[in-house]
Each structure stands twice: as C-alpha cells, then as structure tokens.
Amino acid sequence: MQRIPVGLVGVAGYTGMELCRLLAAHPELELVRVTSRTEAGKTLGQILPHLHETGLAELVVTAPDTQDLAQACKLVFLAVPHGTAMDLAADLLRKNVRVVDLSADFRLRDPETYSQWYNLDHRHVSLLEQAVYGLPELYGKEIAGANLVANPGCYPTSVLLALAPALHHELVNPEDILVDSKSGATGAGRKPSTATLFCEVQDNFRAYSLGRHRHTPEMEQEIGVLSGQQVQLSFTPHLLPIGRGILSTIYARLKTTASSEEVHALYRDYYAQSPVSARWVRIQTPGVWPETRFVRGTMYCDLGLLVDQRTKRLLIVSVIDNLCRGASGQALANANLMLGLAPDMGLPVAPMVP
Ligand SMILES: NC(=O)C1=CN([C@@H]2O[C@H](COP(=O)(O)OP(=O)(O)OC[C@H]3O[C@@H](n4cnc5c(N)ncnc54)[C@H](OP(=O)(O)O)[C@@H]3O)[C@@H](O)[C@H]2O)C=CC1
Ligand SMILES: CC(=O)N[C@@H](CCC(=O)OP(=O)(O)O)C(=O)O
C-alpha cells in the first residue's frame, strides 16, 4: 500500500530532527522531502547520523522550494522560525498543500497582538481566520477539517492542558492565575546563541523574559476562549540545565469548595470525553507529582493537582516533553487528524525513563 507523502521544511533544527525520529517509524506517512538551506545536497543519514540505516537515511536534503514540495507532498510541516513560516504556508496553501506550522505565525487570531508581541507585521492576515489552533484535546474536530494548523507553543501546551478542565467547570477564577514554567534548553532551538552555550546553562538556573514572553498572549487568548472572558496572565519562564522537558507550576484562585477527590474526578472525566481518542493527558494520583522524565519522548502531559483550601488555590504541576508533545509529536498528531488517520498513529507510548 502506498503511504501518504509528506514534507518537512527545517530538518536541521531540533523540532525537524524530532519529526524525522517520529516519521521514521510511521506506518502510513512517508517523508519524501526534507529541506535545509545550509545542509542541502547531503543525505539525511549524513546530517542526522542517529538515523543512519533507518528507512530515511538515503533521503537527500534539498533547499526549500514550494513548487517542488507541492508536487511531491500532500502535507508539509514547517519547522522554521516565526516570520519565515507565514510566506511558506501561504504559498503551499495556494498550491493546495495542507500545512502544519510549528512556528507562532498563525497562533494568534488578532494580527495586532501578533505585531505587538513579535515585533513583526503579519503579511497574511486573511489566513488567520482559517488557521486552527492545534491542541488536539480542545480542537480535534476542527483540526480534522483544516488545511492550516497552527501548532501551539511548548509552554502554552503545558499550561492550557493543565487549566482546561478547571476553566470548563469554573473551579477557578480566570483573572487570578500565576504560571511559573521551566524548560530544557532544546526549547531555544539549535541555532547557536550565547545564552544556550553549555557553560551558560549547566549547573545554573535562571528566569527570563519576565512580563514580556511572547507565549503570554497565546495563553491569554485560549484561556479567554475556555472561560468566555478576557484575561491577563502572569507568566514567568525559566531555563533548566536539561535538554528536554517542561515543568509548569500553576497557581489559580479557587472558586469552589469541591474536595480534592471531586476535582481529580472532574479532570479525569474531562479528558475521558475529549474528542480525540488517544489518552495523552494523565492525572496523577493525589500526592504523586509529575517529573519531566515521566513523559520524555512522548505525547503525555502528566498533571498533579493539589486543592489547597487553606490558601484557596488550585495548584497544578504539569509536565510535557517540549520537543515531542510541545512541538513535533503534536504536529504529527495534527497531521494524522488532518489526513483522516488515528491521532496517535506513529507516536511513541513508553517514556524514556531514566
Ligand atoms: N524547540 C522547541 O522546543 C519548540 C520550537 N517551536 C517552534 O518550531 C520552529 C522550529 O524550531 P526549532 O527546531 O527549535 O528551531 P531551530 O533553530 O533548531 O531550527 C530552525 C530550522 O529552520 C531552518 N530555517 C531557518 N531560517 C529559515 C529560512 N529563512 N527559510 C527556511 N528555513 C529556515 C533552519 O535550517 P537552515 O538554516 O539550514 O535552512 C533550521 O532547520 C520555530 O518556529 C520554533 O519557535 C515550537 C515549539 C517548541
Ligand atoms: C527555553 C526557550 O528558550 N524556549 C523558547 C520557547 C520555544 C517555543 O515553543 O517557541 P515558539 O513560540 O517560538 O514556537 C522561548 O522561550 O522562546
């Protein structure tokens, strides 16, 4: 049986590499084009030696060319920086190719908010209306009918999955939420920078972008949809001296006197009824706190909940793998849905522990 041909723009980056890892084992999708401006002409096995002798090793890297991609592929993943992805997406959509964009270019519905937080004017405002926010548990049906999916940011994935049941059941006040997130260094991408040098990251821990991180409006937008009101969020990201993983701790003001058991049950039921059949959000038993290694290399989002009636706060600890659930695995789940395949096809189940 012929597999469905797909392409990847940005194979030389971390999310591109992660997509290759996943697609190497996908039963129904065939990666037929991989592009990089700097690595064009080499084989995938040469630039990603860990994929040597897989079915993808002989694939030749090309320079990005939307005409060629459109001729060869039904769907293309864009794993390139924001600002770059929007023109490629517009061109591919014009050529009837479906697009999963891993960048932030189509996540914000309001182009002015995009300009303000990304310091860039949006050049394809008319496409914002057709872009679907690619969080499968919340938008599974819309993703299945979409031609353009805006894959969520890594921090927002960890935060929105943690808050969705509480907002849906009005357990917390959406105007009083504090988010404290920590990410591994792959979150910053593979492009060299002083801030991610080994000696700057190892044996160290620091906060960054306080009050101005560009994932803030993305979370505010989706919390607004879930709660039906405009909100402003306090969000502080930190850089951890690890490769993969995000751990977000969320403090939300309780509006309910529900017991811990009741809140755990509401969370479990919410995700049991999600439109996507895969069960990726796992609620830990009370007293067990999620760790980044529990989800490494997978689509899981593990949640630990504490109903603290003393301080009237719901405390949530949420962990994801930023490269898999926070980027490439989620992009693959979205592509599966767009192409009528099972959402979890080709996605690994067992985490890499230790
Ligand atoms: N890292 C993460 O955890 C997450 C990343 N994302 C988003 O995914 C996208 C990719 O991220 P990541 O893989 O980390 O980034 P990297 O910096 O690791 O890689 C970027 C890739 O894009 C290519 N590229 C850069 N500029 C251009 C251009 N002008 N035209 C075509 N290709 C270009 C680069 O290859 P070359 O220069 O050879 O062409 C490279 O393959 C970004 O938008 C990022 O914000 C989203 C969620 C999580
Ligand atoms: C550790 C680290 O630097 N993380 C990145 C987030 C990566 C990501 O998801 O960003 P996009 O919105 O660009 O897709 C950051 O804070 O900018």
**What is the CATH topology classification name of the largest domain?**
Dihydrodipicolinate Reductase, domain 2
The level-1 CATH class of the largest domain = Alpha Beta
Could you estimate the helical fraction of the residues in percent? 25-40%
How many strands?
A: 14
What attributes characterize this protein structure?
354 residues, alpha/beta, Dihydrodipicolinate Reductase, domain 2, 7-stranded parallel sheet, 12 helices, 14 strands, binds NADPH dihydro-nicotinamide-adenine-dinucleotide phosphate, binds N-acetyl-L-glutamyl 5-phosphate
Describe the structure.
- This protein is of the alpha/beta class and 354 residues long.
- The protein folds into two domains: 4-130, NAD(P)-binding Rossmann-like Domain (Rossmann fold); 155-324, Dihydrodipicolinate Reductase, domain 2 (2-Layer Sandwich).
- It is 31% helix and 21% strand.
- The protein is built from twelve helices and 14 strands.
- The protein has a seven-stranded parallel sheet with strand order 3-2-1-4-5-7-6, sandwiched between helices.
- The structure holds NADPH dihydro-nicotinamide-adenine-dinucleotide phosphate (NDP) and N-acetyl-L-glutamyl 5-phosphate.
